[in-house]
UniProtKB/TrEMBL annotation:
<keyword id="KW-0315">Glutamine amidotransferase</keyword>
<feature type="binding site">
    <location>
        <position position="383"/>
    </location>
    <ligand>
        <name>[4Fe-4S] cluster</name>
    </ligand>
</feature>
<dbReference type="InterPro" id="IPR000836">
    <property type="entry name" value="PRTase_dom"/>
</dbReference>
<feature type="binding site">
    <location>
        <position position="436"/>
    </location>
    <ligand>
        <name>[4Fe-4S] cluster</name>
    </ligand>
</feature>
<keyword id="KW-0460">Magnesium</keyword>
<dbReference type="InterPro" id="IPR035584">
    <property type="entry name" value="PurF_N"/>
</dbReference>
<keyword id="KW-0411">Iron-sulfur</keyword>
<dbReference type="InterPro" id="IPR017932">
    <property type="entry name" value="GATase_2_dom"/>
</dbReference>
<dbReference type="GO" id="GO:0006189">
    <property type="term" value="P:'de novo' IMP biosynthetic process"/>
</dbReference>
<dbReference type="GO" id="GO:0009113">
    <property type="term" value="P:purine nucleobase biosynthetic process"/>
</dbReference>
<feature type="domain" description="Glutamine amidotransferase type-2">
    <location>
        <begin position="1"/>
        <end position="221"/>
    </location>
</feature>
<dbReference type="GO" id="GO:0000287">
    <property type="term" value="F:magnesium ion binding"/>
</dbReference>
<keyword id="KW-0004">4Fe-4S</keyword>
<keyword id="KW-0658">Purine biosynthesis</keyword>
<feature type="binding site">
    <location>
        <position position="347"/>
    </location>
    <ligand>
        <name>Mg(2+)</name>
    </ligand>
</feature>
<feature type="binding site">
    <location>
        <position position="433"/>
    </location>
    <ligand>
        <name>[4Fe-4S] cluster</name>
    </ligand>
</feature>
<dbReference type="GO" id="GO:0004044">
    <property type="term" value="F:amidophosphoribosyltransferase activity"/>
</dbReference>
């Protein structure tokens, strides 16, 4: 998911800025989107299923007036893909109204929900965000900032929150900093965004990333910060850099494009091959393919054309939709691969659906050889923190050797980048969650049995 928040003196423009911010974050979720604004007295909101551009129009944006606002784009990891689960979640409580936009996934939301339900609390959605809203309301007595602190101690998992009250915009990043969140400055206010690319879109100047465990509060156009007393290890999700984030974003000081292209260069050294052309699986594989081509001296070419109107295949909730998605999304440019030895660079193999299809399409188009190069190590463990990697049994990296995967996808050779190489590509040797590769989760996760998620 993606979150975006604005605090501005000019209430005419807040909903428009959020619209542009969400538009820039659309790659983080395409199921539903919403905007909530507050004019210091009342909260208005609008949300629906679909893309940002499908949901909002000038009239709707003009009806959303306020100095403070938050927005959300969603792809579901918990809670079904229904409009009731669209965000921001807006609730009334003792002290007014709270709107919440959440990116990430909590690992103890079910347990917390059960405790609340035992006490008679009712829920309207199946999302963990509503659990958080309830907890915030429960600890209202000492004000919202204290209740946010309290909730941070109770909830476990990955979260970047944009929270709006009647007069405050609050940003929170979990103790590990698994999900990104950054702060931008407008001439007359502040912006919070999942990724820095959205700051550029609205003309905000990048100030800094929110730190792991930090709460930032923007009120009366001033920014205050509260840091967690618990010292925390930074564990940015490596998949943000590999796949999820936009290449023109910089997260925790790491530029996504540079990290991806460097990974391609490193992979060219680790796993060279004689070939005629290097092609990418667009879009997420492109920076890495360019890096691989540069380092190997093999020319980069376009071998696959992506339909610009197709969404992200992985972000389709069912396997059937996903398979349909690959066909809709990518087609071979026969003229560039026919009779050639092709290196196909992708950022990851998760289920293997994509690579298998593409290798076969390339061969059918006349490619002599197809060598697959992947700029992340084999994905062997599920993610519990908001990236929708599947149950272990569906992860080809968990159940098959590299040679078996090569055979399954029908490639002439297959190589993954090493963990060392991947770390080197970021310029940092620590500070990441790498659990989907090595099973070393930064916190306890609900593991019960090898095949469970
Ligand atoms: P597969 O078809 O092997 O399941 O998925 C691999 C493809 O999906 C790659 O092209 C990659 O760009 C994309 N992808 C990989 N990982 C993720 C992920 O965690 N989330 C999403 N959304 N997409 C992924
Ligand atoms: Fe990211 Fe993988 Fe960690 Fe999930 S398990 S947060 S996808 S690095
Ligand atoms: Mg891809």
């Amino acid at each position: 998911c993606g979150v975006f928040g604005v605090y501005s003196e000019n209430k005419e423009k807040v909903s428009n800025l959020i619209y542009f911010g969400l538009y820039a974050l659309q790659h983080r979720g395409q199921e539903s989107a919403g905007i909530a604004v507050s004019d210091n007295k009342e909260v208005d909101y609008y949300k629906d299923m679909g893309l940002v551009s499908e949901i909002f129009n000038d009239d709707i944006l003009a009806s959303l007036q306020g100095n403070i606002g938050i927005g959300h784009v969603r792809y579901s990891t918990t809670g079904e893909s229904h409009v009731e689960n669209a965000q921001p979640l807006v609730v009334k409580y003792k002290n007014g109204t709270i709107a919440l936009a959440h990116n990430g996934n909590l690992v103890n939301a079910d347990a917390l929900r059960e405790i609340l339900e035992d006490e008679g609390v009712v829920f309207q959605t199946s999302t963990d965000t509503e659990v958080v809203a309830n907890l915030l309301a429960r600890y209202h007595k000492d004000g919202i900032v204290k209740s946010v602190k309290k909730v941070m101690e109770l909830v476990k998992g990955a979260f970047a929150f944009a929270i709006m009250t009647d007069n405050k915009l609050i940003g929170v990043r979990d103790l590990y900093g698994l999900r990104p969140l950054c702060i931008g400055k407008l001439d007359d206010g502040y912006v919070l965004a999942s990724e820095s690319c959205a700051l550029d879109t609205v003309g905000a100047e990048f100030v800094r990333d929110v730190e792991p465990g930090e709460i930032v509060i923007i009120e009366n156009n001033e920014l205050k910060s509260i840091k967690s007393s618990k010292w925390c290890r930074k564990n940015l999700c490596m998949f943000e850099l590999i796949y999820f984030a936009r290449p023109d974003s910089t997260i925790d000081g790491i530029n996504v494009y540079l990290a991806r292209s460097e990974a391609g260069r490193i992979l060219a050294k680790e796993a060279p091959v004689d070939a005629d052309v290097v092609i990418s699986v667009p879009d997420s594989g492109t920076p890495a393919a360019i890096g691989y081509a540069e380092e190997s001296g093999i020319p980069y070419g376009i071998g696959l054309i992506k339909n610009k109107y197709a969404g992200r295949t992985f972000i389709q909730p069912t396997q059937e939709l996903r398979e349909q998605g690959v066909k809709l999304k990518l087609n071979v440019l026969k003229e560039n691969v026919e009779g050639k030895r092709v290196v196909m660079v992708d950022d990851s193999i998760v289920r293997g659906t994509t690579s298998k299809r593409l290798v076969n399409m390339l061969k059918k188009a006349g490619a002599k050889e197809v060598h697959v190069r992947v700029t992340s190590p084999p994905v062997k463990y599920p993610c519990y923190f908001g990236i929708d990697t599947p149950y272990r049994k569906y992860l080809v990296g968990a159940t098959k050797t590299v040679e078996e995967i090569r055979d399954m996808i029908n490639a002439d050779s297959l190589a993954y980048i090493s963990m060392d190489g991947l770390l080197k590509s970021t310029g940092c040797d620590k500070g990441f969650c790498l659990a989907c590769f090595n099973g070393d989760y930064p916190m306890e996760v609900p593991l019960d049995g090898d095949n469970k998620k």
